[in-house]
Amino acid sequence: MAESRSETLRVAWHGGDRFEIQIRGHSVRVDEPKDFGGSDTGPTATELFVGSLAACVADCAERYLHRCQLPAGVTVTARYDLGLQPARLSKVALDVEAPGLPEGLRESFTAVIRHCPVHNTLFRAPEVTFHVLTSGHEAVCHHP
């Protein structure tokens, strides 16, 4: 990818804690577990975030293996901790299994997977802006 590009996705509410994410014609449901008041019809947004990181690492790993003409078959397992004050992911640990990777390539392989776009974003946070649109009435929310 030689230049940056802009993409758009849309999230719509589907009742309760259920949302649908529309991405390039694909649909992904997001929901909260039942013990958090949801219906558990899909992963949480946080689970998708961690899954996105793990999938991005896996994709970069497979591309590396393909370029080096090594056997495919990477598996990434993610474990994560949720922190409070503020609510956030406080720790993510990724185990990357690459059975066909020769020991001599471990360092270059690790360098490649550490630079996947999602991981890079965690270290160079994007500018995030919020534009609140209403149907003619200004919504006012007072936060303590």
Automatic annotation (TrEMBL):
Its EC number is 1.11.1.-. Pfam families: OsmC. Coiled coil: none annotated. GO terms for molecular function: peroxidase activity. Keywords: Oxidoreductase, Peroxidase. InterPro entries: KH_dom-like_a/b, OsmC/Ohr_fam, OsmC/Ohrsf. It comes from the Bacteria. PANTHER family: OSMC-LIKE PROTEIN, PROTEIN INVOLVED IN RIMO-MEDIATED BETA-METHYLTHIOLATION OF RIBOSOMAL PROTEIN S12 YCAO. This is OsmC family protein. It comes from Microtetraspora malaysiensis. The lineage of its organism: Bacteria, Bacillati, Actinomycetota, Actinomycetes, Streptosporangiales.
